[in-house]
Amino acid sequence: MTAPAEVRAIRTWLDRHWLHDDISFALHPGEITALIGASGTGKSVLLQEMVGLRRPGSGSALLFGEDLATISQRGLERMRRRFGLLFQDGALFSSMNVAANIAAPLVEHLPSMPRELLNEVIELRLNLVGLPLDTACKMPSELSGGMRKRAGLARALALEPELLFLDEPTSGLDPISAREFDHTLRVLTDSLGLTVLFTTHDLESLWGLTDRVLVLYEGKLIADGTTRDVAQNDHEWIRSYFDAPMPVPPYQNAEA
Asked: Helix/strand/coil (H, E, C) string of 8-71?
């Protein structure tokens, strides 16, 4: 079976050093994979290379078996309908309400879609991510951080993609909102058969959500496995990462 996304021997030269040095891996269909590493290891840059927003110095990024470096412009437009992308903070268009944000990919790729059908799709996507329908009329500035992330996810799902790329999806959220977002993503992945790759620093997401963890360190991929297997790796950085204390919910701090 063709991997939904794959990188082969990617090298990236940035700021006078090799940010990525011979990175290779393929995503497994139907799995949620986390990409972790210290700040500055190039997690977001790698995501950009995997969706064609940036070209690596050498090596290949493939989506559904097609090399993004050689695909035609028409092929790239077709490919963009098969994956969704969520940037940090949802990256919503601040001048558009939530409905217009969700509709943007549909208007771009399916310009002849009737308005009535467009409205139905917007409502369906809001329902999918657990947002009330009246959110459609609100501006991004009127939403909480968690609601902005969910609205961004609704937009990423607008075209019914097979593959999702998420950059720090729980960054900036309070613990309750972060776990609610994780739960939504897990339910969507299982029910829609999505394949997901996300970058994160969130330990609770790794333990509660992730099927597989990839670890970047000093330009190399140093670990690849289940969260439990990676947590048992004896690499110094991995040990320090998993030894970091997780936040304790307030009710666990209360005296019995």
From this structure: EEEEEEECCEEEEEEEEEECCCCCEEEEECCCCCCHHHHHHHHCCCCCCCEEEEEECCEECCCC
